[in-house]
Amino acid sequence: PLGLKEGVLPTKRSGLSNAGGNFFMAGVGFSFIFSWLLMLLVMIIFVLGGNVYMLFCESWRNQQLFQLLDTPGLIPGFSLSELLGQEGDTTNFSEIYRQCQQDASLWKTLHLDQSVSLDELLNISQYTGEISTAFEDMNIILSPISLLTQTQEDMLLHASQAGQPPNFTLTLEQLEQNITQGSLLDLATELEQLAEKTDTDVKKDLEDEARKLRKMDKEMQADFSGPLQSLKKNIHSVQSGAAQLEGHTRTALDKANKTQEFLERETPNIIKNETKAFLEQLLHFFETYISWAKSRLTEDVARCKPVAQTLDNVEVIGCDYIMDSVNAFWFSLGWCTLFLLPSIILAVRLAKFYRRMDIADVY
């Protein structure tokens, strides 16, 4: 447009205008030369991008891809159930994908319980029978148990017989009598009778002495009455205890012998019973652990939600980012190719108004 001027004869057009017309024709020539390459590129990208988008992306979103993969005989000689060692067609890709989205474990997703029986593999009862049989056949032999030797028994009997106290009969008879050899009260009475027969001076002394004797007797009765009674009680207790000492000793020896016989007879059974109880407790621990391991293995180990998320991410990246861009690219190139035809026509029609003519058209 800058080189085109009105009123100028076609033979007198400027070089700028002529160059514009030449570029129009050059564009037409390049369009005819290279447009097939552009058409071929559009066709290849269309075939690849369009078909991949329709076959993979659309079928993934409407689950037709999984239905196709689950079709029996699609791949000759391939069966997912047979590959996992399962009977029948109980396992398919769509079911696996659905359970993985729900974060199920691979044990439930792949139905591994049909190929591997945890109840058989982790069945502890097959070992408890052998353990119980071996335990019943076990013979416990202990060394002889001796609580008291014969020498110790003889020493105890001899000590019980030699530990008899002396005869306290005479002592008890003496304790029943007065504390002093004579009675102080009788002596005081005699002094009072003697005082009545004597003169005044001696009489007073005798009465004082009689009074002192009565006071002394009273004090002695108060001081020695309790200890004497306690002494009598202790003597009687020693006599009764000493009389039963030998009987108690023989009773204790009999109990010791019975205890020794009981230990020799029942100790192996007691040890076996306690050992069996401990063994049963250990087996209970093993059963609890096996139950926990089975639940963890079948419910928590190898959850496959990351696999489903990875597939979803691959679909998002491949379809929403790559394939959408590829399809937009061939779509844009297709429109460019489509507009080549009107652009060629326009270029040819416009070139005559820009190029310098060799002969002016009188009309």
TrEMBL record:
Any single Gene Ontology cellular-component annotation: cell surface
Would the keyword Acyltransferase turn up in this protein's UniProt record? no
Task: Name the source's superkingdom.
Answer: Eukaryota
| Broad class of the protein's primary localization | membrane
Keyword Cell membrane set for record: no
* Bilayer-crossing regions: 23-56, 328-348
* Annotated membrane topology: Multi-pass membrane protein
Which residues does UniProt call coiled coil?
none
UniProtKB keywords = Glycoprotein, Membrane, Transmembrane, Transmembrane helix
User: What InterPro entries does the entry give?
Assistant: Prominin
Compartments reported by the entry: Cell projection, Microvillus membrane
One annotated GO molecular function is: cholesterol binding
Q: Which family does it belong to?
A: Belongs to the prominin family.
Write the protein's name.
PRM1A protein
Specify the taxonomic lineage.
Answer: Eukaryota, Metazoa, Chordata, Craniata, Vertebrata
